[in-house]
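ugh ok fine here u go
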Amino acid sequence: MSLVKKIFINQSGFTFIELLAALTILSVVLGSIAMFYFPSLKFWGKGNETIELQQHGRIAMNRMVRELRQAKEVFIPNNFADEITFTTLNEEQFRFYLSGNQLLRSKGNNPLASYVQSVNFSYLNEGRTVMIQLNLENKGQSFELRSAVTPRNLLDSSQEESR
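structure:
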């Protein structure tokens, strides 16, 4: 008998029972891993959505606060309005307003934030301070930001009369 025939004849394989046992153990291990993996993947996705929503809101709020702080004149059409108009020291006029679910800035209609449910501007402190309330919502996640801004260059009524 040749060497090749001896190798093939003397080889033993797995029995059907051994294969079934190995597949059962493999299935239990993979099932256990999947039970932890898929729920954690779902929570990771929700966490990402929350972070994205918070980033949209914070970026928009920071920009509005920074620009309103430099304003010399501020106009809110009525208290708790969804738009505000202001004039800078360079005599440029800007407006922040809500259009659909986007918060826009008038120059170039640049969106400051998406997923905006509502924005409210109101006066505080006898008109010297502007209160901003920004509500965002996306896929069941909601986030609210509030900030009070006192423009540094705001003209009071006596300065306006002397002009």
